Structures are given as structure tokens and as C-alpha cells.
């Protein structure tokens, strides 16, 4: 029989295990600009930044298989919402709440493996001030942000978030990208970086003039 003490100890052990796996995870940074939402990170092989729906973007750090599982789950949920309801009903709140619930269930269910990852969801709107971000932890807890957001491997994103606030929405994407690169490299010491990493950056455009708002900046265009 599982006692409350056993359950609490088990949860603590799970959290400790996941924190250890996430410690080396590459931070993901996002800022709202007049041009759209700019998301930046470094990666090894597989991508970490994805389009979820027309105005929604997702990025994650952690175990690649879990990042992919969350991406697929978010994409399927958003597509189902759009089909059963309408495109306007596919909001970041609905998607993030659904993913948060799934991560919470997996974390507290000792018969299944928890998600080893942290997630960042962003929604581009009419103005940078209206953009919305959700940062979701492996246990399903989440925080909401405006104008900028960051997730890191060691839950020490406060300093990064403060630095991101210095990037004005009027900053051009190329200049903001330079600043994000500086912030990322200053946050992750060179001797603590994984080998063979390369930058990845995506601009989720604010304008809906193009058929696809999701524009890859790194690595294809540079």
C-alpha cells in the first residue's frame, strides 16, 4: 500500500532524476518584436523549435523523444480543435492547458514514465504587447509571460528574463538575434556547452500576408 510519505518520496525522486537530466539542456529564448515572435536556441541534430498552428509556436529542451512526443500531441490537439470548432478557438491557452494536464498526469503516475523536458509555447497576435507565452515544466506547472520568455535546464531563468526585457519590440529581427546570441552564450559557459551544437532561430511573423508565418532564420537562411 502506497502511503502519503511513500508518494511524496517517490515524487521527490522523480523530480530529482528529471532535474539531473535537464541540467545540461540548452536554454530557449523568445522575444516579441514588431515583426513577430523570435525564438532562439542552440541544438545538436534534431530541431527544437516548431510550428504548432498558424499563430502558435513551440520549443522544448530535454530528452528529444519527449520533446517530439509533446510536439506531436500539441499539433494533434490544435488540429482537432480547429476541425471541431474553428481556427479562432485554437488558442495558446487551450493548447497549453491540454499539454500541462498531460504532463502533470505523467509525472504523478508511477506506472508510466514522466516527460523529461520543459516547454515554451508562444502565440503571436496583433501587437507585441498582446503576444502570450506559456512556460510549462515537466510536472505540468506553468507560468505565463508577456513580451519575452525563457526556459533553461536549471530553472534559473530569472536573470535571462530580466535581460530579455531590454530588447525593445521595435528592434529589427537581425539585431535582436545578435543580442539573443550574446545572452545565450553568456548564460552558458563555453566549457559547459555540448559539443557540435549549432544555432537555431525562427521568426513567427506577425503579418499574415504570407501563407506560412513560420520563417526559419537559422540554419537555412544564414
Shape: globular
Q: Report the mean per-residue pLDDT as an integer.
A: 91
Please state how the strands of the largest beta sheet are arranged side by side.
8-1-2-9-10
Report how far apart the termini are.
58 Å
* Rg computed from alpha carbons, rounded to a whole number of angstroms: 17 Å
Helix content: 25-40%
Summed up, the helix count is: 5
Number of beta-strand segments: 10
Catalogue the unreliable spans.
Answer: none
Report on the biggest sheet.
5 strands, antiparallel
H/E series: HEEEEHHEEEEHHEE
- Secondary structure category: alpha+beta
- In percent, how much strand structure appears in the residues? 25-35%
Describe the fold and architecture.
The protein has 222 residues and is an alpha+beta fold. The protein has helices at 4-22, 64-84, 92-108, 158-164, 173-187, and strands at residues 28-33, 36-43, 49-53, 56-62, 117-123, 132-136, 142-145, 148-151, 198-205, 214-218. It has five helices and ten strands. It has a five-stranded antiparallel β-sheet with strand order 8-1-2-9-10, with helices on one face. The radius of gyration is 17 Å and the shape is globular. The model has no long low-confidence stretch (mean pLDDT 91).
Amino acid at each position: 500500500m502506497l502511503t502519503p510519505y511513500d508518494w511524496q518520496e517517490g515524487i521527490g525522486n522523480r523530480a530529482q532524476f528529471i532535474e539531473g537530466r535537464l541540467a545540461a539542456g540548452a536554454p530557449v529564448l523568445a522575444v516579441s518584436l514588431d515583426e513577430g515572435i523570435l525564438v532562439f536556441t542552440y541544438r545538436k541534430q534534431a530541431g527544437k523549435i516548431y510550428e504548432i498552428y498558424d499563430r502558435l509556436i513551440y520549443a522544448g529542451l530535454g530528452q528529444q523523444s519527449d520533446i517530439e512526443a509533446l510536439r506531436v500531441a500539441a499539433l494533434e490537439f490544435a488540429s482537432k480543435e480547429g476541425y471541431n470548432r474553428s481556427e479562432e478557438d485554437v488558442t495558446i491557452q487551450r493548447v497549453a492547458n491540454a499539454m500541462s494536464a498531460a504532463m502533470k498526469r505523467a509525472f504523478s503516475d508511477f506506472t508510466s514514465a514522466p516527460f523529461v523536458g520543459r516547454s515554451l509555447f508562444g502565440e503571436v497576435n496583433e501587437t507585441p504587447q498582446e503576444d502570450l507565452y506559456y512556460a510549462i515544466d515537466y510536472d505540468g506547472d506553468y507560468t505565463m509571460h508577456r513580451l519575452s520568455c525563457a526556459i533553461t535546464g536549471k530553472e534559473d531563468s530569472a536573470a535571462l528574463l530580466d535581460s530579455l526585457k531590454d530588447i525593445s519590440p521595435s528592434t529589427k529581427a537581425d539585431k535582436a538575434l545578435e543580442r539573443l546570441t550574446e545572452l545565450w552564450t553568456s548564460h552558458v559557459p563555453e566549457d559547459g556547452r555540448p559539443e557540435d551544437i549549432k544555432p537555431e532561430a525562427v521568426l513567427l511573423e506577425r503579418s499574415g500576408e504570407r501563407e506560412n508565418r513560420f520563417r526559419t532564420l537559422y540554419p537555412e537562411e544564414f
